[in-house]
C-alpha cells in the first residue's frame, strides 16, 4: 500500500472512530454552537489539571479531581505552575474577557492531546466542566471505581452561554421537610444541567422551616405537625392527643452551610416566606398575628382540608392569613426578614402573595377600619396595602421583593419583581409595567403535576407532559424581552413524601426546563431532544437518580362520539416518534400480538376496560395502562352513563 493510500485509509478510520460518539451526543442543555472534529481525546492514567491558583477556582478544581479520579481510579494532579508540566486538562480564565461569553459562558475544546476550557469567570469554567462530563462515558458519574471503560470523549469545539440569567428550580420543603443533605443532593443534580437558582419555599400552612432566633416558637411549634400518609387534602384533622412530631427545620448554621454549598456550585438560593396567605404555621405559633377569634386553637396543618375550592375562586375554612390590619404583624415581618436577609446573600427575597383567601378579612372589623382609614376599595387593595408595606421592610434590608403574580392585584409595589405562575398573563402585565419578571407558569413548568395518564400516576391536579414542558417559549411576543429575566420550574411537595418520588417528579422534565432557559430558541427540536433524554437516562441510572419514563407511555384521548348518543371514541398517540401501540378491551393484558392502534377506536358495548401498551423494535418500552371505560366517560363529561364495573 502506498503512503498516500495509507494516509487516506487512516483518515477514514479516524473519521469512523469519531462518528459514533458524535451521533450519540446527548448534551443537555444544547450548547450555542458545536464544531465536531476528527479523533478522540482519551484520559491518561496520570491526569494533570493546569490552572492558575485563585480562591474562586479552588472548589471547582477539587470537584473535578474527585469526579475524575473515583470512577477511573486514575491519579489526578492539580498543577498551579502552568507551563511546567504537560497538561491533560487546562482551565483558562480569560485575562481579556470575551464579550460573547458573559459571566457564565465558556469555550470547550477537546483534541486528541488535551482538553481546554476558557471562560471570563469561574462560573463559565464550572459549566464547561459540566459539559465535559457529558462528553465522557456515563460511568464518569459513578461514586465508585468502574473497570473496563474506555475513558474518552469526541473531539470537538463548543462555544456556549445561557439565554437567561435566572434559571431556577423551586423546592418546596415546607409541605414535607427535606434534610440539609437532601437539599445538597438536589443541588448536585441541578447544576449538572446548568441551573443557577434554587428557590426554597420555607414556610407554609404545613410547616415553618427556618430558625428565627428572635421568634423561637416559629420552629418550636410551627415546624411540627401530625404525620399523615396518603392523599394530601383528604386527611382527618389531627386530634388534640396526637403527637406533633413530624417535620423539622434548618438552623441558621444549616442555612449558612447550604448557602455556601450552593455558592461553591454557582447557585444562588432564593428564600421564600409565603405571606399573607399560607401562614397557618406562623399563626399557630403566634395567634396574635391574626384578626380572627379562635386563632389560638389552630394547629399546623397535616393535610386536612382547610380551603374550599370552586370554579372561579376559593375561600378558607380557617384563617391562614397574617392580618394586614393588625399592627403586630409588621414588627413580626421585620424580625423575620432581618434574620433572613442576613443569612441569604442573594439580592431578592420572595414574599409569596399567592392564594390568599379573603373571606375572613371581609368579616373583620379591623380590616374594615383599615379600608376606611386608607381609602381601600376592595380586598385586593387590602392585600396590595400589605405587600407595599412588606416591600419597604424588604428594601430596608438592602433586598428586592419578588412575589407570585397575585401581588399585581390592587396595585403592584413600586420595585417588586413578579413570578408569573397563573399562566403567562401576570408576567405580561408586569413586563408592560416595566417590572422584572420570572416566568413560572403552571401550564408549562409545574413539576408537581402528573407526567402521564392519571390511571397510573400518583393523583394530582393535572397532567404536564415532557413535550409540553419542552415546547415552552418564555418570552411572550407582546413584551419587551429585557423584562423577562428568566424562569424556573416549581415542585410543590404536598404529595411528595420522600426523595425518590421527588426525583421522579423532577426528572426528566427539568431537563426540558434547562434547555428552555439556557439554549438558543432556534436550536430547539423535540425529536432530537427526546433522543438525548433517552441517552441521559443511562447517565441518571449510574447516578442512581430516579426518573419518570412516561415519555414512552401511550396518550389516551377519549372523545364524545358524535354519531352515537352517550358514547365515546378513543384516540391513542405517543410523545416519542416511532412507537407502536397495542390494546385490548377483553380484560387481558396486551402485547405486540394484540391489535395495533391505527385509527380512532370505538369501544365495544360491554367492554369494562381499555388496556394499552407501547412497543419499539418488538420490545415493550412504555408502561401498560389500564383504564376503566367508566373513567374514560367521566373524562369527557358523560358522568350520567351507567358505569361498567369489572368483576
Give a short account of the largest sheet: 8 strands, parallel
Radius of gyration: 28 Å
Strand content: 15-25%
> Helix content range of the residues, please?
25-40%
Number of strands: 28
Strand order of the largest sheet: 14-9-8-21-20-19-18-17
What is the terminal separation in angstroms?
Answer: 76 Å
Structural class by SSE content? alpha/beta
List the total number of helices.
18
Q: What is the molecular shape?
A: globular
Low-confidence stretches: 1-24, 640-647
> What is the averaged pLDDT score?
93
Describe this structure in words.
By secondary structure, the chain is an alpha/beta fold. 30% of the residues lie in helices and 21% in strands. The protein contains 18 helices and 28 strands. Strands 14-9-8-21-20-19-18-17 form an eight-stranded parallel β-sheet. It has a seven-stranded mixed β-sheet with strand order 1-7-5-6-4-2-3, covered by helices on one side. Strands 24, 26, 27 and 28 form a four-stranded antiparallel β-sheet that branches. A hairpin with a 7-residue loop joins strand 22 and strand 23 (568-574). Helix 2 runs parallel beside helix 3 (122-135), helix 4 runs parallel beside helix 6 (252-264) and helix 8 (329-343) packs across helix 11. The longest helix has 21 residues, at 3-23. It starts with a helix and ends in a 12-residue tail after the last helix. The model is unreliable at 1-24 and 640-647 (pLDDT under 50).
